[in-house]
Amino acid sequence: MSAPSDWVFLRGLGREQRHWEAFPEVFAATLGVRVQCLDLPGVGTECHRVAPTSIAATVDDLRARWQPLAAAHPERTWGIFGISLGGMVAQSWPVQYPGDFKRVVLVNTSAASHALPWERMSLSVARQALAAARSRSEADRQKRILKFTTRFVGDLDGVAARWAEYAAERPLKPGNFLRQLGAAMRFRAPAAIAAPTLVMVSEGDALAHPNNGRRLAAHYRAALAVHPSAGHDLPVDAPEWVCQTVSQWMASPG
At residue 130, what are phi and psi to the nearest 5 degrees? Predict the structure, then answer.
């Protein structure tokens, strides 16, 4: 199967493309590909819109924005890379529209059909998330979130301040957050993904249990890669490791 020359990147719950930090550039340089970051409806560039209440509808929205990009260069092939909620979209899209993607990479994602609610979001993190939501300072809120989603961010205050600016520029409406959360809670894994699939898991994920990814890898008969210590936001914690792992998987037979 030909290797994708272009990739769609999808972020998680309440996050937008700027939260990837430098990862898309590192990925593109390491693999020699082009990366297109698309924001889920209701966040980032799409913050003015109402988020769908299902993953299937989210796929339809994203695909309508992706199709002109694909049509402009029909000779190119595509892969899809999704983390967390974006990983749920990346599970559903190749099933709803077979043939759109040659490869699928799922990072620290889950499905209601393969996990208990507290495995998808730990109770301790739920309490921390509630405390973050109550914070009066956006920088403090982002710092609290980073503490339970990352492990290796060195300049925590600097990243939190930058992400606070993103929140001010493109505010996330509470209703859209709840719509995304509801879609995530209801999502069930499809029976199979036809395209070759890699599931990536962080052993140090404090938000969602690493077994979520292990179960999905077994369900899809997909390749599995486990980082021994990174947090939920694996591409931010260990971008080089992610890129090297994907590159090795792409080069492997089958």
Answer: -65, -40
